[in-house]
Amino acid sequence: MNILVNDKTIAFQEGDTLIETARRAGINIPALCYAKDAVHKSSCMICAVKDCKSGQIIPSCTTKTVAEMQIDTESEEVVLTRTLSLELLLSDHRADCEAPCSLVCPFGLDVERVIHFYDSGQLADAFRLIATAFPLPELKCRDCKAPCEKACRRGTVDQPVAIRSLIEKICQKNVINDDRSDKQSPQPLSHDKTIFYSRLGQFTANEKQALKATITTESRCLHCACEGKKGCKLREYATALGVKRSRYSYSSATPAMSKQKIGDCLCFEPAKCIKCGLCVYNSDNGFAFQKRGFVMQVVLPPQNEANISRHLAELCPCGALY
Ligand code: SF4
Ligand code: SF4
Ligand code: SF4
Ligand code: FES
Fold first, then answer.
1. What's residue 103's pLDDT?
2. Does the pLDDT at position 186 exceed 50?
3. Ligand 3 site: residues with CB under 6 angstroms?
4. pTM, whole model, 2 decimals?
5. Do the bridges between strand 260-262 and strand 266-268 make them parallel or antiparallel, or are there none, so unpaired?
6. In 3D, which of 35, 25, 32 has the Cα closest to residue 5?
7. Is 282 in the pocket of ligand 4 (CB under 6 A)?
8. Whole-angstrom distance, CA of residue 240 vs CA of residue 261
9. Pick from 245, 253, 265: which is nearest to 321 by CA?
10. How far apart are CA 48 and CA 50, in angstroms?
11. Among 8, 172, 169, 200, which Cα is nearest to 104's?
12. How far is CA 137 from the centre of its chain?
């Protein structure tokens, strides 16, 4: 049994969905609310394809393959539908993939990660990261106008993190024990400006109040970078489709920035959830949908936390659950 995909004849198996048929033939179709062998329902429309016989745009993750179908997965119309769907998802998503301090450092130093190591007492790791960005003891921060401190989001809450003096402090403690074999080799890292990082979200008045009260790390750093960015499909597709930020204004229904720790190793950030439902359909009495329409949210009641297993983080297509 065959179908035509982009004018090529490919075989399919009984019970296949279009995305399974295409992927088996090596044709890649993006998907967010679909995961192989997991319970799923169409919601994101990133997997859109065109049924050439009816002229309709359909979700390939739930449409069953039927003999003689003629499917288009790559025309301008299909790509536009996917881009639009992505932009709509991003209009409801706190896409703070990168920390502003790291983005503006002229030497490409991953400032947020340096502070992360500092806050967790890993001074040697923090030092190595600094030493990779620029040679020591020629510490570039001393002469730099510190755009990182101007961009620091902590500054919108009260005072920016004193990044320069913190870096100097790390270097002073470590430079004596510097055991790098090649001290002249480090090359400045540079951020890949083509990678999607859109919003650098502003805090609401309530969020600022809550942050003042809760951030207790020595540096006072808010750790703005997304901890779930590794493997984030939302970011991958936004990068591939050239989406820089959503054309649609930010939804006021998006939940406030918060992190819910689940046991020892998982974390849930509701403001980054795209409501794909994978964690809801694949957990038994764990995650749940709350409310309906634009204000619908995915929630995890504290009494349900014990029912959550790690594999749900693998199903989550973005950095909401990691
Ligand atoms: S709060 Fe921390 S991670 Fe955020 S911009 Fe400031 S230094 Fe960077
Ligand atoms: S979930 Fe993905 S798109 Fe969202 S902030 Fe994290 S890396 Fe960026
Ligand atoms: S948290 Fe759940 S509903 Fe939200 S994006 Fe991740 S898997 Fe989907
Ligand atoms: S992957 Fe098909 S609708 Fe989301």
1. 87
2. no
3. 273-279, 287, 298, 315-318, 320-321
4. 0.85
5. antiparallel
6. 25
7. no
8. 31
9. 265
10. 7
11. 200
12. 35
Number of domains in the chain: 3
Amino acid at 305: E
Q: Which of 82, 113, 147 is the last residue of a domain?
A: 82
Question: What percent of the chain is predicted at pLDDT more than 90?
Answer: 53
Average pLDDT over residues 64-79: 97
> How many whole angstroms from 227 Cα to the centroid of ligand 2?
8
Q: How far is CA 304 from CA 11, 140, 255, 285, 288, in A?
A: 44, 49, 20, 6, 10
Each residue's pLDDT tens digit, 256-310 = 777 899 998 899 999 899 999 999 999 999 999 999 888 899 999 999 999 999 9
Question: Is the minimum distance from the CB of 161 to ligand 1 under 6 angstroms?
Answer: yes
Strand, coil or helix: what is 167? Answer: helix
**For residue 59, what is the domain's CATH number?**
3.10.20.740
The last residue of one of the domains, among 168, 195, 214, is 214
